[in-house]
Protein: ABC superfamily ATP binding cassette transporter ATPase
Amino acid sequence: MTTLVKINNLNYRKNNKTILHDVNLTLTTGHFIGLAGANGAGKTTLMRLIAGVAKNYQGEITIAASSDEVMKKAAVSYSDELLGFNNQTSIEDIVYFYQTVYPDFSQTRYQELAKFLKLQNKDRLAVLSKGTKERLIIALTLARQVSLYLLDEPFSGIDVMSRKQIIQGMLNWVSEKATVMISSHHLEEIANVLDELVIIKGQTILEHRSTEDILEQEHLSIENYFESLYKGDEDYD
Ligand SMILES: Nc1ncnc2c1ncn2[C@@H]1O[C@H](COP(=O)(O)OP(=O)(O)OP(=O)(O)O)[C@@H](O)[C@H]1O
Structure:
């Protein structure tokens, strides 16, 4: 196991508000990691910071021992919301853009993913349902060949049956050496593929633990363990 992400004493403020405080986290290669927390806990912010999209933080974030922003972007594939594209842009145009911008984008892997996720090349963003747009984002994110994949709430609009298939499929699509971090409000659905769980609460990392350890030591499902840590909190329903 090699260290892939190292975060030391990270503090992040936005508009005079502390979003993340004194975050320390080490992630190693070859793991599936769940990122959990209540609404507004800071999951998206943490992913944006690791991906190099959010800037102006205090502390240190290194990916594969590098803190260089260009190197970080080359090592991390982050599920982008596709906000920069006009509604009339077709899927094939977006794929072409990804191919041009990311030298690690695999056209072969994208075609496999697109087939599995039932994406139609000619469809324009305007006609895509929420679930189909999420499928496209998953395909684009996983078609890159990188060390770290960050998937932020990738399945919220996808029906339960398809979610299960996609979650299992992910194990085949990414290299064994890569690490995948997924944030989700449906922990029970991803629990069986997770090696580790990271929980954000109180603007920092409350827990970072292996799922095996949770199951053996706590005798609780991953979902119930997460809920037990938030029990009694007004900010979690
Ligand atoms: N531009 C901003 N200015 C000020 N506060 C912000 C800004 N963007 C996000 N926040 C705040 O940062 C906190 C963390 O937000 P973030 O989106 O990272 O949470 P999250 O855990 O991903 O939430 P959710 O589960 O609802 O997606 C929230 O309290 C949010 O209101």
